[in-house]
Amino acid sequence: MISQAVQDYLKSIYKLQHLNPDDSVSTTDIAKDLDVSGASVTGMIKRLDTMGMVDYSSYKGVKLTEKGEKVALEIIRFHRLIETYLKEMLGFPLDKIHDEACRLEHHISEEFIDRINQLLGEPRFDPHGHPIPSKDGVITEYEEKPLSEIEPGGEYYISRLSDTDKKLLAYLELMNLTPNIRIKVVDKAPFKGPITISYNGSEKIIGNEVASNIFVKI
Ligand SMILES: [Zn+2]
Asked: How close is the Cα of 132 to the center of ligand 1, in Å?
């Protein structure tokens, strides 16, 4: 049985590794992400190293081993399927599903998650647009770009929303700017100015900061 703390660490390392695929993760980044002290991170990383979940050296940082990545993907599968269930079946708003899923993911069985998966029709993406790993750890990802970097012209589908800022997520949901919406950049003011977009049959103006949190498939 893998403890809740171990699960959270593996999930965090996976996420951080993903943000910067060329680098290994520093213990400082992990401490920041999990909001714990540097000393407790070092202690836990040494434990994970002994368990064969990560490779760690004090000057190179942390990297998941194949075994560690497998466990991380399993937890992420649970997390994202629960998020989808909360949104689709229970009507939770987008900004609330992450925290709720973080609590639930440690307390449900494999069978429970399999049934949720069946009920939802085996979804491949969660409501933020994050890919849901398959049972054998396969993850599909789109090539994407932030909307703020798209030049006016073509039409794109929203692939994913950044989920770091909850208030922003609530705003995007209110504006109906969610995954799979087809969107067109009509005009872009210079020097990171506002961006005029068109979707669902009308035009709206959004800030550059907002656009940088929306990703589109390219
Ligand atoms: Zn998500």
From this structure: 9
